[in-house]
Amino acid sequence: MKQLDVCLTPDLLHLHSLDNSIVVVADIFRATSCMVTGLAYGIESITPVATIEECKALQLKGYLAAAERNALKVEGFDLDNSPFSYMSESLIGSQVAMTTTNGTLSISKAKAGAVKVMVGAFLNLGALANQLRAEQYDILVLCAGWKGRPNLEDTLFAGALAEALKDEFMLMEDSVLMAQRLYNQGKNNLPAFVANSSHVRRLQRLGIQKDITYSLQTDLYDVVPVLRGSKLVAHH
Amino acid sequence: MKQLDVCLTPDLLHLHSLDNSIVVVADIFRATSCMVTGLAYGIESITPVATIEECKALQLKGYLAAAERNALKVEGFDLDNSPFSYMSESLIGSQVAMTTTNGTLSISKAKAGAVKVMVGAFLNLGALANQLRAEQYDILVLCAGWKGRPNLEDTLFAGALAEALKDEFMLMEDSVLMAQRLYNQGKNNLPAFVANSSHVRRLQRLGIQKDITYSLQTDLYDVVPVLRGSKLVAHH
Question: Where do the structural domains in chain B lie, given as residue ranges?
């Protein structure tokens, strides 16, 4: 039977063998919620890059540049890290280069060893689960966390995916059990359950409660972003 | 106000500044439960060491040697890693050198930067909480985990300590919130809550269910092991 495991932060990725695994990267507030939204609204590809400089270099080649550091937009870039910025008709068919504090770094790390890299969010939870059921590989959910530390919202997403796939995958390790139990504890009111988390407090100070509420909605889109080469593209 | 935080595994300790913190190391199954039991029963000191070789070297100097690797006793050593082995009258006044897969390594790591290192278990939870209330420092609970990965039982202990100290300490970070919520979810029946964890399954195969049940009991002892130089000694 296939196994589903969770890595609570990219700083623990060295403990996992990825040889036979699909890695699902989750950065719920807000990188992977933006990616799912953008691809659902018709962006052609999103290229995750690790640094501001790489992002600027792609901007010079005609990409739209999206950058966030410490939850703030970066000067001179086309897009910020709010999912609502990714709903514009003007973005249809565009190529986006994106760098964020945690999410894009996790994707880079995952790319090094995994069979395949996908992007997850509550927004595409059901579609992602269906896609993963059809694959023959183990799954590692890589929570992007915050600067190396685990965070609540990404852990909850991992738990939600584990709960959705528990009949088809073995849940063996304690990290996935903890994520699953936290999700079951909070699932009836996720916004209330994350209200005291460190990241939510950080974001609320920036006045972006609506991004939080939006990103905790389940199954708005059926798109699954998959990494092909250096680009995330939509798998419907 | 003082802060209490949790580090879910020693592999994340680099993310924490220990300058102003007391580190409480927890390795519930079974190193820190053994330490608390042994000091409560009259062992004079326990010297945690990282390697089997260091432990043997101290054995030659007259220490009793305790070693565990992968949950098994090591050939030629005086004590194993079952808390019941630490209840013998013959141990009163003795010096013990101990090495275990996870717990003693965590103590070594903590020693490098912390103001003070204490040892926690469910067995001494209340005494430990009282001691920490009287201190002026922040607290970091360092969960020993299993070979770098977070585990359920140590996380639950961290949550129990956070719950006990929530009125006197700020609980700011997501790791401590997750631990606290898991503890509150499981506290009415901890043995059932940990029954599916990876470590419990590992230990059950070795036939040591009684160690598990014992180690999940709260407030059997009022001893708080504190590191003085290289030795853990009892603080009553």
Answer: 2-235
